[in-house]
Amino acid sequence: MKYHAPYRYLVANLVVLLTGFCFGAKTADAKPVQADGRAWEFYVAPYLWGIALDGDISHKPYSVEVDESFSDLWSDLDAGFMGAFEARRDRFSILLDGFYIDLTDDGAFKNLPLPFPVDLDVDNETYTALLTATYRVLQSSAGFVDVLAGYRYWSLETKLRVNTPIADLQVSEDDSWHDAQFGVRGHLDLTPRLYIEGMALTGARSDRTVDLAAFVGYEMNDCTAIMLGYRHVKIDYSTSEYEFDAALRGPAIGFSYRF
Question: Mind listing the domains of the chain with CATH numbers?
Answer without folding.
Answer: 7-258 (2.40.128)
